[in-house]
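ARCHIVE CARD
SHELF: 3
SLOT: left
DATA:
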Amino acid sequence: MPEPGEAMRAAFERAMQIAGKSSNGIGAAAPKSENLSPAELPSPNLESEDKLTASTKSSGYTSRLRAAIKRSGLSKPPNATVGAQAGRAVAAEQSIGNPPRFPSPGSAPVGGQDGRSPQRHGATTKNARIFKTAPSAPKRQVWSGSALPTTIKPSTSTPTEHDRIESRRRLMQSLMALGATTETRARAAAETCRPAPADLRELEQRLTADNRTRESGTRGGRSIEVVIGVDFGTTSTKLVARLPYEAGSPSFAVPVPAFAMAEGHPYLWASRLWLSPDGAFSLAPRPQAAVVCAIKANLMTTADVNHVAVTAMAAEASVEEVATAFLALQLRQTRGWLTTEHTAVLGRGKVVWSYNFGFPAASLNDEGLQARYQRCAAASLALAGERVMVTLSTVRQALADVAHDAASQMERAQAALVPEIAAAVSGFANSTRLDDGLYALVDVGGGTVDCCTFNLFKSRDGGSRCPIFTADVRLLGAERWSVCQGDTALAEEFRHQLNEQQCSVIWRTKKDRDPKSERWASELPLFFVGGGVKSAPHHECTHGLDAWLRRTSRENGGVRILPLPPPEGLDHSLCAAEQVHRLAVAIGLSLPLVEIPQTELPVEIDDFHIGQRPSTEGSYIGTEQT
C-alpha cells in the first residue's frame, strides 16, 4: 500500500494534469478536453465566482484547478493549500464509483480546445445515409455562466461529493423499494377487483369469438390485412388494430372492460394476470387465483428466466411464462373484439393478421433481453392462433417449441419487434411536416424515462429511415417521483438524475455521434411524449434543455419541443382527443411494417473520427436504377 505522502503526491499530480500543469512547476501542455473522461470534465453546476467568461483563460491553470476542486464540493482554498485541496478533490472523485457526469461544453468545445482543430462528421452506418452536413460553424461563443440544464433553482449551499453520493444511494434504494411497494399496492387493488357479470361475459365473448369466426372469413376472393400494434407497458398495455388497405385506412383503439382499466382510461389495460391453482391463466380474477402485476418489469430486470413470478398453491409460473400468457390472452381478446365488432368488414374475405410489438430502443441493445422478449412474443402468437386454453402446460410447450428459432417463428407469423421510438414518430415521418435531419425524443412513462437521439429522413425508395444514435432508459418515471415528496435531498438528486440523462444523451450525440448536424446551429427538434409529460420535474427538465444547450453549445443552437401530429382515422370514441397521446406508440405500431421508419440501433452505428469523410453510399441513384 502506498504511503500517505505518495498517495497525496499522486493525487496532486493528477490534479495538475487536469489543470494543465505538472507538479514540478514546469508548464506542461494542457490536455485537450476531448481526451478527458467525462468524470474529469468540470461540473456544469459551478458557483458564480468560478464562471468562465470571455476574459477568462478557459485552458489556464487556475480555472481548471478550481473546476477539479469544485467537483468534490471543497471550499475555495488559499494559495498555500492549493496542492492539498487539489489532492483531496481528485482523490474524492476517483475513490468513489459515481457515474460520469454530463460534460460541460465550456471546457469541451467540439473541434478541439481552441476551436480550430478538425470537426468530426456525423456518424454513419454501412449502406445508409444518416446525417446532414452542417454549414460552416459560426464564431465560437465562449461559455459563460452555469450550465445548469433546467430552470430549477440551485440550493443555497453547494453539496459535497459525499452528500451527492449519499443522496444517490438513498434515491436508488427508494426507487427499488418503490417497485416492491407498487407491486404490493397493485396486488391489493387487484385482489379487491370485483368485475361486473356483464364485463366477464364480454371478456369471455372476446376470447372465444376468434375461434368461432376463424374460418368464417375465408369465403371471399380477397385478403383483408389487419395489423395489431402491441404497446406492452410496465403499468398498462395499449392495443390498436388497423386495416391499412381498406378505404380510409381505419384504425381502432381496443376498449378495456371497466374492471381492467388503468387510471380509469378506457384504452389502457392494466398489465396484470391471474394464475389459478389448476394452472389456468386469466385476465380476470378467479377463486383462489394469485395475481401478478409487475409482468414487464420482471421480464426485463430478472436475470434468471426460471425465476418464479407467481405462485397459486402448487402452480408456479416463471417470468417468461407469465409474460407469454399475458400477451397470448391480449392478442386473442383483441382479435375476438375486432371480429365481433367489425364483422361486416372482416367477413368480406380471408383475414391476414400481422403484429408489431413495441420495445425500448435502449433495451434492444441487450441481445439477451431482446431474445427473451422475442421468445415470449413468438410463443404468445402460437397460443393466440390455436384453439387451446392458455395454461401452464400449453405455455411451457409453446416456449419450448420456439426456444431455438423464435426469430423465424416471428417472421412466419408476420410479426416484428419494433423500437418504440420508431413507432412513436411514424405519423410524423409519414407527414408533410418531416424535415430531414436530427431529432430527439423524451418519453416519460409511469416507471421509466426513455431518452434518445436519431436522424429521421426519407430514403430514395420512398420509405423512412431512423438510425438511433444514442438511447438511455432509467427508472425515473412520473410515478417514481412520489418517493421524493417531502425529502429535499432526494428531490434534488432525482432532478439531477433527470438532467444528467437528457443532457448526456444530447451532448454525446453532439460530441461523437452527429457533430456536423445543422441542427446544432439552429434548433434541435425534440418530441416530449408519454403519460408523465405533466409531471413537474420532468416538464421543468425537458423544457429547460433549450436554455442549457444555447449556453453550452458554441454554435448557440437550442432545443425546440415539437408536438406529434394527431392520428388520422383512429376510432377513439370513448376518450377525448387530449387523452389520445397515451396511445401514440400503439398507433404507430399498428402501421404496416413498411410504413414504420427503418431503424439502425446505436450498437450498429460507429462514432465518427477526426478526418473521416461521410459515406455517400446509398445516397444517390446509380445507373443500374435508371
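SLOT: right
DATA:
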Amino acid sequence: MAGNLIRRKGYEVSQAVKEAEGHSGPGAEPGPPGMGVVEALLPSRIFPEEFMPEMPAHVKRKLIFQEAPGEYRFHDLGKVQISGPNRKTLENMERFHLFSLAVFSAVFIPRSAEAAAVNGGGLIVPLLGASFLIVTALAVILALLVRRRKPILGFFGSVFHSIGQALSENPDVKKLVQEHPRFFSFMGRRLDRESFSGLPATLLGIAFLFLLIQFLGVVQSVLTLDPIVAADLRTANLLASLRTEGLNRFFLMVTMLGRWPVVLAFALSASAILLLKRRWIFIPGLWICLLGATTSTWLGKVVFHRQRPVVAEYVEWSYSFPSGHAVISVALYGYFIYLIWRFSNRWGVKLVALAGGSTVILAIGTSRLYLGVHYLSDVWGGYLVGLMWLIAAVSVAEAIAWKQPRREEPGKEFAVSAASWVIAVAALSAYLLMGSVYNPPGKAAMKKPPQVVEQNIKSIFLKHTLPRFTESLIGKNQEPLSFIIAANDDENLIRVFRAAGWSLASPESLGALIKAGEAAVLNKPDSAAPVTPSFWNGQPHDFGFEKPLKKATVRERHHARFWKTRFKTPEGLSLYVGNASLDVGVKWGITHRIQANIDAEREYLFKDLAGTGFLKNFGKTDFVGPLLGKNFFGDPFFTDGKIYILTLRGKKGQH
C-alpha cells in the first residue's frame, strides 16, 4: 500500500501498527502495570497525519484526550500528532458533547420542571432540576480546567518542585532525614506514583478516613438529637405538604432505581458487559461494593433502631437509619461513573456521565425524602456509607488492574459493542416494566383526634407544652405567636381575612416563584406571591395571607402565617395560631426583610380584622414577655410579648 512507503524517522506505518499490537520493535518499552499492550503504544513517539488513515480502528480508539493543539495521548503513554481534518474532527466532537450537555441543562430541564410544576409538581421537580444544573455547572467547570490543565498543572508543579527542591537542600531537613530513615522511607513509599500501594492508595485512604469521620459525626448528631434531627422533622413535614398524585407516581419510579430487583438486574448486566469486553477484573469491585453496602445498611438499621417518619407515603417495614437506597445508589451508580471515566476515550462522555450519574444519585435520595420514608440525616448518612464502599471497590479494582494487563482482540469490537447495547437496553426495559407496576401499600393517615380546651384558650400552651414561638428549619426560636383565632373551619378563617382586604398566598410552586421573582425584579405587585415557609411545633404554616401597601409592590407587603392546631373550643370551633410582620424589602434576591417592630404589624392586622364585623369577641393578654431577637434570616425584631385571642363569627352578624 502507498501508505506503507511513507517513512518518518525510519518507521513504516505497518511496522508502527505491529509494534502497537505486539509491543515490540525498536524503542518499545514495557508499559506500567495495569496497562494493556495496545495502551503502551510506542512510548514517546510522534506520528504525522499521514499515519492516521492506515491505523486500525481498535488502535485509533485508544485516543483519550488532547495533550496540546493537535496532540493526543494513548492511555497516558504514546502520543500521536494529528493535524488537518482529523484534528478538527476530534476537537469538534469534544465541543459537541459539552454543547449538548449545556443545551440539555439550560433548555430541557427548566421547561420540564415548569411543566411538572403546572401539573402539581410544586417545588420538588424544580429543586431536582436545580440540582442537575449545579452538577452540570461543576462538570463544565471541570471540563474547562481539563482543557487548560497544562498551564495550570505546570504552574503548580513548578511551584511545588521549587519548594521540594529547597526543602531537600536545607541542612536541617537533611539532618532530620538521616536521623529518621525508616519514617522517611515509609513516607516515600506512600507517595510513590509508580505503585498503586503508593500515592493512589494513600489518597484513597485519606478520602475514606475523611468520609468515616463525617459519618461518625452524623451518627453522633442523630444519637444526641442535634439540630440536624430538628431539621429532619421539619423537612419531612414540609415535603409531605407538597405531595401530589403525579409527583407520587414520578418519585415511586425514581425510588425503584434503588430497589434490589432493579439493582440486581443492573449489576448482572454490567457484569455481563464487562465479561464481553474482557474487563472481568473490574467485576469483583462491583460486587464487593454492593455486598458491602447491603451489609452496612442492615447493620446500621439493627444497631440504631431509628423509627421511620410518621408522614411516610407508604409502609416500609425496616428501620430508618441509614437509608439503604442512598447507600446503594452511590455504590452502584458511582461505580458505573468510575467505569465510564476509566474506559471512555472522550472527556465529553465522561462529563455527561458524571452529571447524569450524580443527578440519578441525588434524585434517588430526594425520592426517599419526598415519599417520607426517610429523614434527611438518613439519606446523608447513607450517601457517606455508599461513598466509603465505592472507595473500597475502586481500590480493589485498581489494585487488580495494576497487576493484570488487558489484551485486545482486534476485529470483535462491533459484535461486543452490539451485544453490550442489547444487554443495557434489556436491563433498562426491565426497570421500566418493574417501575410501571410498582405500587407499595399506602400508609393510612394517622391524625390525632381533636382535643377540647377545657379551660381558657391560652392554657393549651401550658398543659400540652406547645411552643410559643415560630421556629426555623433547625428548630431555633423566631418571632413569637401574636394571634390565637377560634373559627368554624378553614373557609371561615379565609373568608374573614379576605373581608379584611388580605389575600390568600399561593402555595410554593415553580410557576408561583417565577411570577413572584418577575414582580420583584420589575417592582410590580403580586397579590398571591408565596410566603417563605416557617414552622411551628415542627409543622410548616398552613395558611399565608398578605396585603399590599399603598404603593403596590411585591417587595413590600403586610403578611401573616397561620397554623391549624388539633384543639377545639367547647363550642366546636377550631383553634388557629399565627403571627404577622411587615416586609420592607428583598434581601439576597430570595427572601424578604422584615420591619423590626412586629408589634405594629400585630396591631395593624387586628384593626383590619376588627373592621370586618366578624369578631364575636376578643382579648389581649401577656404571652412571652418583652424580648429582642432575630429570625432565621438574621432580621432583628422586638416585641412586648402580648397576644390577641379572637373568636370569629360564622357569618356577619351571626352570634
